[in-house]
Amino acid sequence: DAAEKKDAVEKKDEVNPDGKVKKQRDSTKTRSSRAGLQFPVGRIHRFIKRRAPSLRIAGGAAIYLAAVLEYLTAEVLELAGNAARDNKKTRIIPRHIQLAIRNDEELNKLLGHVTIAAGGVLPNIHSALLPKDTGKAEKDKKDHGEKGDHGDKADVDKAEAGQK
User: Fold this and answer.
1) Is residue 66 domain-resident?
2) In whole numbers, what is the pLDDT of the chain averaged over residues?
């Protein structure tokens, strides 16, 4: 019993006046860490309660919402990071977030009416505005001795025809 009390003092446990050892609780764990999340479950719960004061909000609702928000954020950040890497940049800017969201079908549907400040627009040229590819332009290139779209392959074909 004396050894137990001595152990309790070393572990910073409390010894009651009646001689019983009261174990000190480990440091409190946040609901976020219990759920394995980075987003703050307690803060989200508080925001939900503040938004709808007449409703009772279950604890699981805040955890679920925090998990969904964390997942969506991770998804957008991963795609934006890929867009930044494609542009040879190491820092994600609003333009990269815009490109990530607009190039992903599901995120574009979810965030279709969202405006991202300094995000710009997707590069898009209407097909009617592009120059028309006609057979006449191709014929002119061949008549003037220029290589067409086939390049060296056309020259090889001509050389083979001359050998026969």
Assistant:
1) no
2) 84
